[in-house]
Specification:
CATH superfamily of the largest domain: Aldolase class I
Number of strands: 11
Number of domains: 2
Strand content: 5-15%
CATH class of the largest domain: Alpha Beta
Shape: globular
Structural class: alpha/beta
């Protein structure tokens, strides 16, 4: 799979997840085989207003490439100005978000709201493509609701407007993240346009990813919630797709090492207080399903010191290993 002479290694990519896919988590997922990573969703308005938190989303490191900056907004000229501004950071892709279902985004006429305003969606896409020196991708949903499931119409417009790939999350805005994603829509989209299609939705294992590819013919699979606490899903999926065989799950030692590495990197990037605060949700995801995880999670969430957290985690994993040996 090649976008603008960039050869991708593997067929699984990391979804942009608000509050999750920062530089530390993206780096881990790339090391595990994610073919592309994306920033958290970036407001075009926030960029032009030089909002400090929005500007922070632009930070990435070279080991994360190829990386896409995901932008959202509703005003064409603001989006083009934002694209021109971020050119200096040299992302590998620009990804336009036309699929976010969150109320605070859609009430501003952005994200999935643009699925109801096809003319504006087309104008935004054409203008961004014209002003970007980077490949432009777009992310959409099945439609606003089941009565307005217009993903195929939108995909054709996006293709004609110059996007080089389309990600489809086949739920409607009305569904949010409830219910099941309609993979049949991914297959229909693949047959309707010639640009690469990235399938998204309900992929929580390597087997799910393989099934999505087999069932829909999509070119790449995007994994979001399935990667939470489980960055190994990219390695496992690539291996399954390449060999047809399953990899064993990560050992307790490897899992602990990744958690501690994640902890250290968060502190380096964000400082101890903020780094540990933002890491808490990841710690809960990492240990989910392990023995006594609820009790340990509560203890970890109370601790505010790096060394105390490291000691707690190390003792916990030692106890699990001892229990398994017995």
């Amino acid at each position: 799979m090649i976008f603008n002479d960039i050869k991708l290694e593997g067929r699984v990519v990391l979804a942009p997840l608000a509050g999750v896919t920062d530089t530390s988590f993206r780096s881990i997922c790339r090391s595990m085989g994610a073919a592309i990573v994306f920033t958290e969703m970036i407001s075009a308005d926030g960029l032009l207003q030089k909002n400090s938190r929005t500007l922070d989303y632009l930070f990435f490191r070279e080991n994360e490439r190829p990386i896409g900056f995901q932008l959202f907004g509703s005003v064409p000229n603001i989006l083009t100005e934002a694209v021109e501004f971020i050119e200096q950071f040299q992302p590998d892709f620009i990804d336009l978000n036309f699929g976010c279902p969150v109320k605070k985004v859609v009430k501003r006429g952005a994200g999935a709201a643009l699925l109801k305003d096809i003319d504006r969606l087309e104008e935004i896409t054409r203008e961004v493509v014209k002003h970007s020196s980077r490949p432009v991708l777009a992310k959409i949903r099945k439609g606003w609701d089941e009565n307005h499931a217009n993903a195929i119409e939108v995909a054709k417009i996006l293709e004609q407007s110059g996007v080089q790939a389309i990600t489809i999350h086949p739920r409607t805005q009305a569904q949010g993240y409830r219910g099941h994603s309609d993979w049949q829509t991914i297959g229909l989209l693949k047959k309707s346009v010639s640009v690469p299609i990235i399938g998204s939705g309900d992929v929580r294992s390597a087997e799910d990813a393989r099934k999505m590819i087999n069932d829909t013919g999509c070119d790449l699979v995007m994994i979001g919630r399935g990667s939470l606490g489980n960055p190994w899903i990219f390695r496992e999926t690539n291996y399954l797709l390449e060999t047809g065989k399953k990899l064993p799950p990560p050992s307790l030692e490897e899992k602990l090492n990744i958690i501690l590495s994640h902890l250290e990197d968060m502190i380096v990037i964000k400082g101890e207080k903020k780094g540990l605060q933002e890491l808490r949700k990841h710690l809960g995801w990492y240990i989910k399903g392990l023995p006594n995880s609820a009790k340990i999670r509560a203890e970890l969430f109370r601790l505010k010191n790096k060394n105390e957290i490291i000691t707690c985690l190390t003792n916990y994993f030692d106890d699990i290993a001892t229990y398994d040996q017995n």
